Amino acid sequence: MQSFLSKTLLLITLLVSLSALAKTENNSIEAFTSSFEEQQGFFTFYHDKATSKFYLEVPKDSRQFIFQTSLPWGLGSNDVGLDRGQLGETRLSSFHIEGNRALLVQHNTEFRAQTRNQAERDSVNQAFADAVLYGFEVVASNDKHVLIDYTPYLLSDVHGVSKRLQQTEQGQFKADPNRSVVYPERSKAFVENTELEAKVTFVGEGQGQWINQVAANADAISLHLHHSFIKLPDAAYQPREFHPNSGFWAHSFKDYAAPLGESMTVQYIPRHRLNKKDPIASQSEAREPIVYYLDPGAPEPVKTALLEGARWWTEGFEELGYDNAFQVKVLPDDADPMDARYNVIQWVHRATRGWSYGSSVIDPRTGEIIKGHVTLGSLRVRQDMKIAEGLLTPFIEDASELKAAVKSMALARIRQLSAHEIGHTLGIAHNFAASTTDRASVMDYPHPLVNLTTEGTLSLNNAYAEGLGIWDKQVLAYGYSDFGGMPSSSEQLARILEKNKTLNLHFISDRDARPASGAHPLAHLWDNGSDPVTELERLLSVRQQVLGSFSKDMLQPEQPLSQLQAIFVPVYLLHRYQTEAAVKWLGGVNYRYYMANDTADDYQPVGAARQQSALKQLLKTIQADNLRVPSHVKQWLVPVAYGQNSSREDFDGKMGLIPDTVSMAASAADHSLHLMLNSQRLNRLVQQHADNERIPSPTQVMSEIFSTVFNDWENATNDPLLQRLLMTALNAEVRAIKSAGLAAETRLMMRAELVKQQQQLAESSSLLLQQLAHDLESFLTDGKWPEQYEPEALPPGSPI
């Protein structure tokens, strides 16, 4: 009986399947879509208004295309990172059709075989897994196409929104199809691309701080998700080889058809397609110019500044012999910024200050940039204005003159920022060594240059450089020169790289510059000058002058006095980033990106004299005299006024709602101590000191830190600042010794020095010092150390 039932069910299932397949084959696309609105294009699609569905017409020939997802409408939180206009993953895709099923496949482009041997290519394709992104039911067909209901996938979380919300601890969310619809207004088909969009609502329990700050309802957030189907570029594009010193990013993959003995890694630079109409002519128009479109939502005068900064690149292309090859326009009102045909510059709002970035849609096969997409955070300009107000107000009495100077500085930064992010969408990487060579690149992170005038006032007239630097033009030459009619491109590229050496241009990028442990003496963020230590000394002097003249006159009469802290913070921390630059001389190492045929004679530690001068200057950043908030300023740092909100941009403290100037000083000092006592830096010092005893050892660094905060102890009995700085320094030393990254020999050396300091404290008659000595003894004996010595973190710094 059970066998009979099983056979009966199997027969019914088979008949149903055959019936569905026959129905699909007999159901023509023309008949099925007769009442739908049709959009013909690269992928033709149909809108069924009655059911709010999109049907996609898929060719049966399994053609490949680029599948790009994006986020046209964002969450508005810099911390969560789901911004308006954010690009998702770029995929090489195709549809695989079998019976009444169509699978959207993402092909694996990381592993290839660049050969005419089809069997060899197949062996690699079959060895590394592709991915099926979604399976669709075929609802109709004709000789060349099948029709699928694309709606379920369009309403799904293709952008990874739920995962991002979970990663940032905002809550568990999932897309709710009952609260989601297709969005016809931004769904269009063109000859070489098709664009589909949906309004998708994510439902969950919004428990995180950031989602509650920005969402209308933290339990249901409605975003827009966008899908782009892009025709593959033709084979006329010529990839250009990557070189570590080219200044470009690398687009890489493994070629399993590479001859034995040769590298399997293939690296191209990402770049736009650009060729002269007449490649032999010294000046020629481009066959097709690179055109960027600016978000019309950017307000004036920001819009004009963004256009001006973007057009700096025009000069660079002109010097390569192109006429009008790089253009910047305002995006037409009827254009969609997510449309793959437009390179765009978007002005993006968030609840808090955040990063700007330049992203691209890149052909995974060749590195060709198909679409550049710049995201510029709108609140950064307001932070620049606060910095300018804090610096200039004490020295400019005329209100209109002050307003003009502040505005001028902020717009200069906007121009530079626009050029910087567009540079990324041209394929160009950061160069964090450019600031040391007369601000040679817009691809560095610039700090406003503050100049002291002969009259004893400050000037920001040269806060930011204007136009491209010499490095930018050299990088453009590598990536975008048209070598038609010249010797081999490899020879020409080598000449460009050789010219960089002749010009004494340095290139050091993110991996070497960003870490707190960074060793390169030229690779810094938000710095100025060829000598970071001298610049730190100068900037500390400027800071003291500004703090001495700091006044509540920086506020308008109708503003709450508590808003003064927002201006005070960046002034008080004016030396913050130059400290990060100067510390790289301590335990620093000179090097560059070497090739096998290079000599590495310059691969040496920073000289002993320079390291000692860096240590001397860094110690000034933890001295009480430099960190004490002037009494007249302390009087104006009042609690937040009723009706105002506390800000993440303000200092935290240990006095509740009352601003805590002692904790401000401790936080600033701890920033420097973190840098000086970085475990990798200390490990380098051990080895460098062994080779050259004039280079500071970790013992010397600890000893001089202790002396700096302990020298004035006679005055500390009634001075909480001196007391706190001593505790902060000892806490930093203990923290460094506990660090897992510290080498065994470095830890032993530092523990021995800490024993000396503990003994010195224990010999004092001060009860406070005796308690510190007791806590140090507990740490040295059993590893216990009170958590209350840890100071508050600094307010957010980057980006500026």
From TrEMBL:
Protein name: Peptidase
Domain EcxA zinc-binding positions: 407-715
DUF5117 domain ranges (all copies): 85-277
Signal peptide residue numbers: 1-22
Any Pfam family hit: DUF5117
Lineage: Bacteria, Pseudomonadati, Pseudomonadota, Gammaproteobacteria, Alteromonadales
Keywords on record: Signal
Any one GO molecular function term: metallopeptidase activity
UniProt cross-references to Gene3D superfamilies, sorted A to Z: Collagenase (Catalytic Domain)
